[in-house]
Amino acid sequence: MPLFHVLGYEFSAAMALLASFAFAHLGSVFSHEAASAHPSERALGAGGFARVLAVHLALLVPPLALIALNAARVRACDWASGLALYALLPGVSAVCATAAGFCAARLVRRAARATAAAIGVVLLSLGWGALRLYVDPPLSAYDPFLGFFPGPLYDEDVGVTRALLASRAMNLAVALGAVALATRRRLAGAALLAAGAFLFAAGGRLGFRVTFADLDRALPGRVETAHVVMRFDPARLSHRDARALARDHEWRHAQVARLLGAAPAAKIKSYVFPSAQAKRRLIGAGGTSVAKPWRGEIFLNQADPPHPVLRHELAHALAGAVHGGAFGVPLGSLGLIEGLATALDEPIAEGLTLHEQARALRDLGRAPRLSSLFGVGLLAEAPSRSYAFAGSFLRWVLDTKGSAFVRAAYKAGAVPGFAALERDWQRFLDGVTVDPAAREVLRERFRKPSLFSRPCAHDVALLDAEADSERDTARRAALRERISRFDPGDPARLADWGRALDALGDPRAEAVGERALAHPNATAPLRHRLIEDRGDAAWRKGDFPAAHAAYARARREPAGEAADRLLRAKIFALDDRAAEPILRRFFLREGERDALLDALALTELAALRPIDGFPRYLLGRQLFLRGHFAEALPHLEAAERLGLPDAGFRRECLRLLALAAWRAGDLARAERFAERALALAASPGDRAEWRDLRDRARWER
Length: 701
What we know:
It contains 33 helices and 7 strands. Helix 16 crosses helix 17 (403-412). It has helices at 9-37, 46-59, 61-69, 79-107, 111-135, 162-182, 186-201, 203-206, 212-218, 239-260, 276-283, 310-323, 334-345, 354-363, 370-373, 383-401, 403-412, 418-430, 436-447, 457-469, 473-486, 491-504, 509-518, 524-540, 544-555, 561-575, 580-587, 595-608, 613-625, 629-642, 647-663, 667-680, 684-700; strands at residues 141-143, 147-149, 221-224, 228-232, 268-273, 290-292, 297-301. By secondary structure, the chain is mainly alpha-helical.
């Protein structure tokens, strides 16, 4: 089974569960047998427990040996992490289960009843953990016997954390304390149980027993609107930005309710975390936004409005009110759950609508089998593909059959007449056309396989996060090299390593980039990025002809409007020899961007080219990206008035103007700019995006 066939979290969790039931049973049986053979041992017992535990720990060695041998057949990556998880999950579970069996044998005289009591402890603990997942905020769970449930599958960076170490320390203290009391070692038992109680009480701070009170302390900011109660961290999100995000919630709630034809009477509770790290520490699922539809709760990572996934998560919450039931979702149809949320979200990707994305999947040969998505087959597909395909189908059903039909299907957990509807939808897709360049850009988006088919998925995700936060360039390059070895089928890993080497000044950078460029899985956007890197290197050396040639070659590889616009800006900078030194400092700045240095460079550029719109555009864009919306408006307006290099820059300038006016609270101007952007939209997806902003401004007015 994918992921279970290597030494990692999945294998360790499965072994922890099996070992818990086996050792609770065997612990009670062996303890009874030992007590029968040596009656005095019932009073003493500590030696008997140690002997039984030693046998149980020895029984964990053969599975470990087998999974290690399997590495000859299947790629294994981080052995240290795998061994640590094996020790922390089945290793500690063995102690807890053996203690449950041992104590049951001491308390219950009949062997069968003692075994039932020990197994009952395991079941009760697992049931309690499931109940806490249901009623408490965390999306991950810690348990003495399972060890750890990480939460949503799409959150890949699963490993040893402080919360896991603390929870396992608590489990050991309680288990060994119970054994000590059962063997009449009262002082040791009391000390161990006190230590366990201390860790339990600190569980909220340590991250393994977070309650709503802990969450409210971590997110003390609160904004309440007509339909939403939003919690946030005021130290990381100003009240001005919080109010803008709350307005975003209201607009998305209105959109979803209109499309679905229903909304819950109770207010949605939205928790906005300042970072993925904070979210992972508090509730798990650091990189994944999620909803608990049965509680009307959504959990988001902080992002500037329009929030990229807010509408999707609100769709889950509102659809939960339609379904009702214990969980608010049709558990037997993952395609319905995620497909409906995607249909109500209408996400745009590279300027393409949901239906265009589905058609592109077909054209690229990456379309999943629709019927499998509406069972549990959705788990076997990458979310980028499965969500878009199921979402397009349900959006078409919503548009052709109406919201009442979709609500009834969601409540029943199945789409009536599915086969006939699929045929009609496929015929509808036959008539959808997709721009070939945009389709090639989507090839990169759809290339990433499912979590279950990627080697070392968890190890790579953990190393990725470590490399992203690493400030030492040599250490970062070493991590990127390690990731590329763990995931040789992904040329983007080689590209990342090459960039890290280039930042280090390592001469191997060019050769690594060539390997990535020649990789059979390299897509047009990746080739664009690699060739652009060559141009940047040539520009840094002052080799203008080589930089021009590389940039011209990169432009022949479709990479999307934003990437192409950046490339056109670099070419424009190269051609302006007077402004080139200033623009080189701006575009090729290494490391983290410095707002003061950027402002200085762009102010110099504006003084050098006072009647040119391009410097004012760059300055306005930087102000916008740093949250200075009112200050960005005059510069962006001047840029449009003075003129920009081409229509693509004008479209982007109008987009920034509309968003800046909206964020500044000037809704009338936001509507006007959105109307003008709508007139220049280059694709159906762009038109949908600007229509959304125009309608939002009208709605808020």
